[in-house]
User: Fold this.
Amino acid sequence: MRADRARRRRRPLLLPYLLIGPTVLALVLVLGYPLVDMVVLAFQDMTREQLFSGAAPPWAGLDQFRRILGDGFFWTVLGRTVLFTAVCVALTVFCGLVTALLMHRVSPWVRTVMAGVLVMVWAMPAMVAASIFRWLFDADYGVVNWVLSRLPGVDLAKHNWFTDPWQGFAVIVAVVVWGALPFAAITLRAALAQVPPELEESAVLDGARPFQVFRHVTLPVIKPVLLMVTTLMAIWDFGVFNQIWLMRGGQPEREYYLLGVYSFIESFAVNRYSTGAAIALVTVVLLLGGSVVYLRQMFRTGEVE
Assistant:
């Protein structure tokens, strides 16, 4: 009898691990070997000779890290990546929150239409979205140039947005925010649905203005979800690659390098495989640092026990 009771007690404890086990195993098999191989490669000196001959590359220790950390261009790319990530995250969270608040206030059928449109945008492949935006901002046939040129005193005929990196990155930011907005809006809309209506009604009856209701009633309730969305956006935007690569036709200029693009170029265009692996490893470490900060914040807010 005691053995049966012990088994029954263990079943609820083992069930979560059994459910998550296949996912963890798949992640280890799919990501484990490439990650370990990348770490090893970052401490070697792989050249095309070793790649084609199959010979073991010589160990270089920390030489690759000294090379990239002593290169001023690496720090330029890092600063550019941080700034790009901050702008994308801020715009995505702000636009997502505004859209979620709008969906929360409109009638059910309008909310359904908005949700359907957002899901279709979310399902759009990055290649299709990049092609659409390249056409919109095309120097010869772009709709944006045509519309803006209709404004008084504005002449953007034949204007190339990518000649100036600031303008070019503005277009790329628009592509990234466009693709990430549905996730932020739908997730925050779900969080807003958990806010007790009686709390907002009580605040209004006490004379609180709409902004005060949002700040003191709504925001504290959705803060954990808002923090999660912000962190996920930062992790995704920090490693942006596809949008830049596609918007620049597979040949991004050095002014458009972010860490992901820089690592890829060093590995497969310049054939400095170990240097590219070292840059990728630094990127992973920075992302892990951001994840640790996120987990600490979650512990403080009591969301993780």
User: Anything to note?
Assistant: The chain has a mean pLDDT of 85. Residues 188 and 226 are 7 Å apart (CA to CA).
